[in-house]
Amino acid sequence: MLRSLIPLLGWVKNYNGGLFKWDLIAGITLAMFVLPESMAYASLAGVPSQYGIYCCIAGGLLFAFFTSTRQVAIGPTSAISLMVGTSVALLH
Question: What's the pTM value of the predicted model, to 2 decimals?
Fold first, then answer.
């Protein structure tokens, strides 16, 4: 039952350790792009930049634990940031 809730437990046992180096390089490369982008979108939304980092890391980790797909792109978008920014601006 736990494996159905956390798909990572199902596929991690079949992971090819020889690919770890390439996965690490891909992860670092992606982080170099996504973290500054998330900070910029947080600023665009009118919240402190560090919130963008927190959301990017937390969202990525939760996504990795609770999905089973390998080919997907996740991350913030400028459209969502603008919508959040206008919503937050109305509250002030």
Answer: 0.69
